[in-house]
Amino acid sequence: MGDISFSNGTSNGNGNAVGGQRKSCWYEEEIEENLRWCFALNSILHTGASQYQDIQLLDTKPFGKALVIDGKLQSAEIDEFVYHESLVHPPLLSHPNPKTIFIMGGGEGSTAREILRHKTVQKLVMCDIDQEVVEFCKSYLAVNREAFCDPRLELVINDARAELERREELYDVIIGDLADPIEGGPCYQLYTKSFYEFTVKPRLSKGGIFVTQAGPAGIFSHTEVFSCIYNTLRQVFSHVVPYSAHIPSYADTWGWVMASDFPLMLNADELDLRIKLRIKGENRYIDGKTFTSASTLSKAVRNSYG
Amino acid sequence: MGDISFSNGTSNGNGNAVGGQRKSCWYEEEIEENLRWCFALNSILHTGASQYQDIQLLDTKPFGKALVIDGKLQSAEIDEFVYHESLVHPPLLSHPNPKTIFIMGGGEGSTAREILRHKTVQKLVMCDIDQEVVEFCKSYLAVNREAFCDPRLELVINDARAELERREELYDVIIGDLADPIEGGPCYQLYTKSFYEFTVKPRLSKGGIFVTQAGPAGIFSHTEVFSCIYNTLRQVFSHVVPYSAHIPSYADTWGWVMASDFPLMLNADELDLRIKLRIKGENRYIDGKTFTSASTLSKAVRNSYG
Amino acid sequence: MGDISFSNGTSNGNGNAVGGQRKSCWYEEEIEENLRWCFALNSILHTGASQYQDIQLLDTKPFGKALVIDGKLQSAEIDEFVYHESLVHPPLLSHPNPKTIFIMGGGEGSTAREILRHKTVQKLVMCDIDQEVVEFCKSYLAVNREAFCDPRLELVINDARAELERREELYDVIIGDLADPIEGGPCYQLYTKSFYEFTVKPRLSKGGIFVTQAGPAGIFSHTEVFSCIYNTLRQVFSHVVPYSAHIPSYADTWGWVMASDFPLMLNADELDLRIKLRIKGENRYIDGKTFTSASTLSKAVRNSYG
Amino acid sequence: MGDISFSNGTSNGNGNAVGGQRKSCWYEEEIEENLRWCFALNSILHTGASQYQDIQLLDTKPFGKALVIDGKLQSAEIDEFVYHESLVHPPLLSHPNPKTIFIMGGGEGSTAREILRHKTVQKLVMCDIDQEVVEFCKSYLAVNREAFCDPRLELVINDARAELERREELYDVIIGDLADPIEGGPCYQLYTKSFYEFTVKPRLSKGGIFVTQAGPAGIFSHTEVFSCIYNTLRQVFSHVVPYSAHIPSYADTWGWVMASDFPLMLNADELDLRIKLRIKGENRYIDGKTFTSASTLSKAVRNSYG
Predict the structure, then answer these.
(1) Pick the residue with more confidence: A23 or D263?
(2) So what's the ipTM on this one?
(3) What pLDDT score does C301 carry?
(4) 8 Å CB contact between C107 and C133
C-alpha cells in the first residue's frame, strides 16, 4: 500500500487539541465479542427504562444524537436516513398505489416519518410493544415529532403478531422494523416461515408487499441472519428482492428484504419518476440508481445463497 | 425496540448482563502516556469552559460525582476527603492557634470547607485565578455550599502571587492548592525557591506554617515533582515534613509537604487531642496515628532524597 | 497460581467468561479523532521500523493477521481481498490485453499477487520507497510469497514519481497503491493534476488505463479525498470511472477511480467472460455484477460532484 | 483545585509522538465491573493454559513484564518487589531464627526468592496446585530462576491443605500466597477459621508465625476481604498484625496479615539490624521505618474493625 501507509480516514495528531474535555467521555459498543466501536461523547441527554429495556439518548461527536437501547445503538441522527429510507421507499415505490401501511415495531417514529412523506398513504398503523420507548422517542426525537402528530397515524401498543391476527382489514405494505431474530430473542417468532405464511401474507391486499429489515449484510456478517431471512421469504413469496447499504454508525453494511406474490417494479427511471410524483420533500439516500446498486449484491454475498 | 428494536449486528442478546446502560459510557483519563484509568459513567452532569480551561462535572459509577478540568480528574465525591483533610488538618493542627489562613487556588471550595471546620479560624482568604471554575463549583458542589457562604471567607479572583505580594497582613497558615509545577505550566513559578523565600515566607506570621499539595508520591511517581518540592522547601525553611496517602480515584499515592521555621508539633496523642478540641464534626481520614503513618515515608521514597 | 494466584482485587472470579486471555489485549485505532475501532488481540507477531515508519504484524481475533503501519491498519488477512481485487481487476479487465503493469507503492505484495493472476501480464514493475516494509512483508506475509518470487515481477526501491520519470517504456496499466493525499503528507504530490498529466499519462501505452485507490468513499467520508481525486482525474482523462466497496476491517466503504483516454469496457457479462478466460483461480469479490453495483454510486455520494 | 487543574501525573500532549505503534496495543483489566485499568503493550511474550487457568506474559510499557492469569494481573516486573518483600520479610524478621518455611501457593517463584535471601532458612516447601503455571514461571521469569534451583527448595504440586495435613514436621513460618477468598472461588476454604485452627496452627513450631496476603486494603476496598481475614485470624491467634502498602500496578493499596500465639517483634531499629544480619542483598522496599508506617493503618481502615 504504497510509499507509506495510507491513512484510512485517521486525522489525529494534535494531542492537546483533541485531549482534555473533548475526548474524555466515550460511548463504547461491542459490535461483536472481539470488536469494539467507540464514539466520543458530548453528553448523555436522557436515560430511561421500560419493563423491557434500558433507553439512552446520547449526544455523540461523530454521529450526533444517538438512540441506544440495552447498550446497543439503534439509530444515529447523522445517518438514520439511510436505514429508514431504505426500509420504506423501495416497497412503497414498487407498489402502484400504497394507501394502507402496517409497521411491526418502529416505535422510534422514523419509519412512520418516511412513510407519511408518501402522498398516496391514507392510513398507517404503527404497532410497538414498548410504550415507554415510544413515549421516550415522542418526547426527545424532534425530527419525528410531526409524524407522531399526523392524523393518518394510528399508534397501537401491542405485540405485532397478536395485533396482526386481531385485525381484519388488509394492508398494501407491511413493514418489519423489529429486532434481529436472535435465537431466544423477543422477535425470533416474527421471522419464521409460519409467521410470514399464516400471519403476514393473509393481511396483504392484492399486489401487497412485505418488507423487513434483515440485519447485517456485510461480506461476512450477512450469514448471521440476512441470508436466512432471504431464504425463508423465498419459500413463502414468489418475488423476493434483497438489498443492502453501508451505514457508517453501524460500522457495517445493513440489509433489507422485500417480498410479494406479484412482480416488483424496480426500474431505476420509473422509481425516480414515482419519487418525484409521490414523495413530499427530497430523499437524501434512495433514488433509482442507488436502489439498482443496493439490490445488486456482491459476489461474496450472493455466493452464500442456495 | 423491545419487541421492535433492530439490533445492529450485536450478537450478544443480553444487553443488561453484558453491556446495557450500566457499562456503555466511560470516562477515560491518561494517568500517564501509557496508562489509562477508566470509570463507567452514569451521566455528564454539567460542562463549562473558562478562559483558562474546560470544566466537567461527571456522575461516575465507581467514585460518585467527579470534577474534571481539561480532561483531568480534580476530585471525586467518594474520596476527596482524603486529599483535603491531608492538605488542611496537619498544618492547622501543628499550629498552636491558627486564626488567619490564605489559600493559593482552592477554587473547588473543599479546602476552604475543611479549614472552616477549625474553630480557631477567624479569617480565610481564598485566592483563585479562575472565576468560572469558582462559580461552577459554587453552583454544583452542594457539599461546599456552606463553606462558600461562611462570613469568615474572603474570596478573591486573582493570581495567587500577585495577591500575596499586594497584601500586607500576615497569615498563620498559607496553603498551596495549585496545579503541579509542570515545566511551562501556569503554576510553575509558584513552586520555586524564590517564590517561597520572597513571596510566601514574608507573609507568614511568627510560628506560621506553609503547606502545599506536592503531586504524586508513589514509589515511582514521587520523582516527578514530590521530591523536588520537598528539596526546594528544605532550602527555605528549617523544619520540613513530607507526607503521603493513597487516593483511590487518583490511582496513586499523593503527597503534601508542610514547612516552617518553627518546630512542627506532630505527636499523635496531642494531634488527637487538638482534633477533639478544635475541629467541628468528625474527620473521616486524618487522626494522630494516620498522620504518623502518612509522614513516615517508605524506603523506596526516602531513598531518592539527598 | 489457580489454587494460588493472588487476584489483585478483581472481584469477578470467572476469568474465562468475563475477561480472561481472550479479551484482555486490544488493538485500538482512531478512525477519526472522535471515533475508535478496537480489535481483540491474540498476539503481536512482529514489529519493525523503517526510516519512514513503524510496522506491526498483529494477530487479531475479528480480522486475522493485520498489517499496521504507524498505528494505522493497512490490511487484514480476512478481507484484504476486497481492497486488492477492487484495485486490480477492473482496470486489467477493462483493458483488451494488459501485458505491462506499473505499481506505485504496493510494497505489501498483495496488489502484485492479484496482477500476476492475469495470464496476459508479461511484466510487472512494483516501485515502493520503503525497503524495510517490503522486506517485512516478504518475510511475514505468506499469502504473497509466491508473488514476490514471480519472474515477471521487477521490484524497485525508489520514489514512484522519480522512477516513472526515469523510465522510457510504456505501460498498459499504471496502478496507484499509495497513502491518501494528506495535505503535507508524503504522497500528496502523487495525486495532483500535474502529476497525472505530466508523469502518469505520458507513460501509458495506447489504450492504457490508470487506476488509484482513492480513500474512504462512505456517504460522509467520500468528501475527504475521494471526490477530489475523482474530480482531478476528470480534468486529465476523458473517461473516468469511480467505484467503491465496504471493507469491514476499515469500518468504512472504500473508493477507487479508474481513468483512460479510451472508452472503458464495463459490461458485466463481458467482464465475467474475461475473468474466466484471463484470471488464474477464482475471484472472491469481483465479478461483473459486483462491479456494476460498485461503480453505481449512491445518491448521497453522487450529489457532491460538480 | 487552584489556579488551574493540577494534572495528576498526566503528561500527554504530543499526539504524533505517542500515537502510531507506540500506543495502538493495550492490556485492559476490569479492576471492578465499573473501573478499568489499561497498560500500553510492547508485546505479548508468551501465552499458555493449564487445566485451571489461562496464562500470559506481557511486556507492558508502564510496568514492564507482567504475569496475567485469567485476565487478571498477578505481578508486574517493576513493582512485584513491594508485594513479595511485604509478604515475606516482616514475618521472617519477627521470628528469632526462621529455619523451615512452608508456602501455600507461590508458584510464580518470587515469594521463594525473597525467603531464600534469608541466611537462617534451611528448608523451604513451596506447594502449588498448578504444575503448568509453575513450569511457565520457571521458564520465563528469569528473576526467579536462581530460586527455583536453590537446593533448600522443595517444590510440591498439590493442594495446599491436603499437603499440610499430610505432613508431620513443623514450620517456623507458614505463608499464604493464595488467591483472594472469593465466595465459591478455589481458595475460599483456605481462609476459614477452621482451616487456620486445625490445619495451619498445628503445623507451626513453637514461636511460629503465619502470614497471608489479604487482598486489597484501600480506604474502601479493605472491606472486600482484608477486614474479614484480619478478624478471622484474631479469633485463632493471640497476636495479629495487619499491614498494607500501595502497589502502583494494582491501582490499589494491598494488605497482609501476620499472626502468632507469641509476641511479634516489630521494633523498627531491631528490624533494621536483623535485615543487615540475616538478609542477603539489599531490600528495595521493606525496612524498619517502612514497616512501622505499613503496620499503622489509617483511621478509615481501622474504623471498620470491631
Answers:
(1) D263
(2) 0.90
(3) 94
(4) yes
Locate cell 475479528: which residue? C62
Q: Looking at chain D, which subunits does it touch, using at least 3 CB pairs closer than 8 Å as the criterion?
A: A, B, C
Cell numbers describing residue B282: 468528625
CA atoms within 13 A on the CB side of A270: 10
For residue D18, the distance in angstroms to the closest alpha carbon of chain A comes to 9
- CB contact, 8 Å: D28 with chain C? yes
Span B296-301, average pLDDT: 95
Query: What are B89-122's pLDDT values in tens digits?
Result: 999 999 999 999 999 999 999 999 999 999 999 9
Helix/strand/coil (H/E/C) assignment for every residue in chain B: CCCCCCCCCCCCCCHHHHCCHHHCEEEEEEEECCEEEEEEEEEEEEEEECCCCEEEEEEECCCEEEEEECCEEEEECCCHHHHHHHHHHHHHHHCCCCCEEEEEECCCCHHHHHHCCECCCCEEEEEECCHHHHHHHHHHCHHHHHHHHCCCEEEEECCHHHHHHHCCCCEEEEEEECCCCCCCCCCHHHHCHHHHHHHHHHHEEEEEEEEEEEEECCCCHHHCCHHHHHHHHHCCCCEEEEEEEEEHHHCEEEEEEEEECCCCCCCHHHHHHHHHHHECCCCCCCCHHHHHHHCCCCHHHHCCCC
Confidence band for B306, pLDDT divided at 50, 70 and 90: low
**∠ Cα D44 D50 D52 (to 5°):** 115
3-state helix, strand, coil in chain A (%, to 5): 35, 30, 35
d(CA C48, CA B24): 35
What pLDDT, in 10s, does the model give residues C164-211? 999 999 999 999 999 898 877 778 888 999 999 999 999 999 999 999
Report, as residue numbers or ranges, the catalytic residues of D: 177
Which of chain B's residues have a Cβ under 8 Å away from the Cβ of D299?
283-287, 289-290
Please indicate if any CB of chain B lies within 8 Å of the CB of A26.
yes
Band (pLDDT 50/70/90 cuts) for residue D101 is: very high
Chain A contact present for D18, CB below 8 A: yes
- Pairing assessment for the beta strands A64-69 and A123-128 based on DSSP bridges: unpaired
Cα separation, A161 vs A166, in Å, equals: 9
> What's the predicted TM-score (pTM) here?
0.90
- For chain A positions 74-103, those within 8 Å of chain D (CB to CB) are none
Of D7, D293, D296, which has the smallest distance from its Cβ to B182's Cβ? D7
With CA atoms as reference, report the closest residue to C213 among C55, C90, C300: C90
- Asked if C215 is an interface residue toward chain A (Cβ–Cβ < 8 A), one would say yes
Sheet of B100-105: strand order equals: B153-157, B123-128, B100-105, B171-177, B204-216, B252-260, B239-247
Question: CB-based contacts of D135: which residues, under 8 Å, 6+ apart?
Answer: none
Q: Which three cell numbers stand for residue B289?
A: 496515628
- For residue A145, the number of C-alpha atoms closer than 13 Å in the C-beta half-sphere is 5
Question: Predicted confidence band at C10 (pLDDT cuts at 50, 70, 90)?
Answer: very low
Lowest mean pLDDT among B10-19, D242-251, D297-306: B10-19
Mutation target among A11, A12, A22 for the D interface, most CBs of D within 10 A: A12
| pLDDT tens per residue across span D135-185 | 999 999 999 999 999 999 999 999 999 999 999 999 999 999 998 888 777
Q: Which of C 217-246 lie inside 8 A of A, CB atoms?
A: 218-221, 224, 245-246
D298–B245 CB contact, under 8 Å: yes
Max Cα-Cα span within chain C? 75
- Interchain contact, C23 vs A6, CB within 8 Å: no
- Whether D288 and chain C come into contact, CB under 8 Å, resolves to no
CB distance A32–B11 less than 8 Å? yes
Q: What are phi and psi of C209, to 5 degrees?
A: -130, 135
